[in-house]
């Protein structure tokens, strides 16, 4: 059987360079590699509602923003199925059955859920839907019999939880579901890109982001205001690389050819880092270089996005077509699941 990709994003905001480094860029490469039988890309609006119940308009509006970001990055509706989660009601049914295979304490132990509950200050008022979203994520992945889920590091516990559900289902009922593997970025710096504040991971819900749709000027301002090394006060001071956001971004985005174009006096990133650590290299110079690197990467994305923005109804057509295709596949899996559970009575 061929390999199948399923991955997606919550429409809680426009996509940022953390998504790009952690998942989006890879998706486009995989889509174009020809190694996968199918690629499904889901806009997880139902999941976004689990912690945005009082703000459905935000989720609604961001569906189109996320779709524009996808297309701008090179996801191609001719090659990948782009769809909206809430339109596939079979996913709710699968979730309901999988809920019987997971305990409350197992969910409470899920490190991502724990961290996200803390980040959102839910304390004891956690919506049940949010608490159980790893189960619905298992439904999303298994509905498409996905073998491969390209994600950032924060999603690893989700994939593990899915694998457990699959094993349990296949043991209790029948070998129907496929155990997926996470596909992490190869570059360590892309696993969990920090925000421009250097504190948490770059996240739409925190707002410490450089968005793919930011103008050149916005990107430059954000880069020049980025967190670096608080001990590097004067150019002559030795600088530190650990936790230094500007260098983490360079690890994630810069390539050898950028040096040839923008900093020919350095042979490469190792030499730049060594100079910074030694002292005598100012933050401003490094930030200007990072700005050039990011502008070069983001400019084509930005201009493609502007083109797609001209015809929004065409974007909805793409999502409608994709959702129709996705629904057929999910319905087949649901039917297999019900047969295995022997709840196909008639
Ligand atoms: P939210 O704050 O609403 O959860 P988010 O910014 O965390 O939004 P998601 O939609 O939850 O984004 O994540 C979509 C995908 O992008 C996931 O695969 C996730 O691992 C990846 N991702 C998100 N943030 C980062 C980051 N800072 N670095 C690397 N990958 C990331
Ligand atoms: Mg998230």
Automatic annotation (TrEMBL):
GO terms for molecular function: ATP binding; tryptophan-tRNA ligase activity. CDD domains: TrpRS_core. One of its GO terms (biological process) is tryptophanyl-tRNA aminoacylation. It catalyses: tRNA(Trp) + L-tryptophan + ATP = L-tryptophyl-tRNA(Trp) + AMP + diphosphate + H(+). GO terms for cellular component: cytoplasm. Its EC number is 6.1.1.2. Coiled coil: none annotated. It comes from the Bacteria. Keywords: Aminoacyl-tRNA synthetase, ATP-binding, Ligase, Nucleotide-binding, Protein biosynthesis. Belongs to the class-I aminoacyl-tRNA synthetase family. PANTHER family: TRYPTOPHAN--TRNA LIGASE, MITOCHONDRIAL (PTHR43766). This is Tryptophan--tRNA ligase. It comes from Cuneatibacter caecimuris.
């Amino acid at each position: 059987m061929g390999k199948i990709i399923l991955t997606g994003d919550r429409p809680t905001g426009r996509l940022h360079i953390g998504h790009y480094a952690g998942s989006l860029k890879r998706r486009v490469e995989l889509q174009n590699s020809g190694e996968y039988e199918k690629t499904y890309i889901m806009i997880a609006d139902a999941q976004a509602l689990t912690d945005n119940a009082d703000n459905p308009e935000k989720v609604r509006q961001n569906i189109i923003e996320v779709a524009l970001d996808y297309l701008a990055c090179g996801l191609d509706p001719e090659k990948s199925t782009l769809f909206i989660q809430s339109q596939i009601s079979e996913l709710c049914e699968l979730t309901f059955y999988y809920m019987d295979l997971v305990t409350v304490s197992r969910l409470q132990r899920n490190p991502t859920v724990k961290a996200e509950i803390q980040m959102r200050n839910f304390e004891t008022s956690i919506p049940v839907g949010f608490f159980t979203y790893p189960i619905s994520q298992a439904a999303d992945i298994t509905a498409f019999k996905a073998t491969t889920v390209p994600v950032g590091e924060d999603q690893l516990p989700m994939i593990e939880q899915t694998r457990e559900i699959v094993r349990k289902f296949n043991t209790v009922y029948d070998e129907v579901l496929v155990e997926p593997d996470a596909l992490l970025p190869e570059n360590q710096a892309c696993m969990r890109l920090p925000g421009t504040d250097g504190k948490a991971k770059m996240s739409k819900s925190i707002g410490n982001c450089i968005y793919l749709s930011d103008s050149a000027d916005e990107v430059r301002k954000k880069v020049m205001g980025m967190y670096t090394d608080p001990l590097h006060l004067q150019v002559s001071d030795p600088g530190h690389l650990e936790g230094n956001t500007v260098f983490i971004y360079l690890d994630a985005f810069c390539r050898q050819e950028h040096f040839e174009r923008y900093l020919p006096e350095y042979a490469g990133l190792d030499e730049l880092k060594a100079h910074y650590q030694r002292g005598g290299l100012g933050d401003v110079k490094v930030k200007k270089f990072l700005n050039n690197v990011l502008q070069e990467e983001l400019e084509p994305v930005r201009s493609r996005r502007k083109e797609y923005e001209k015809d929004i109804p065409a974007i909805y057509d793409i999502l409608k077509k994709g959702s129709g295709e996705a629904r057929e596949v999910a319905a087949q899996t649901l039917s297999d699941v019900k047969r295995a559970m022997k709840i196909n009575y008639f």
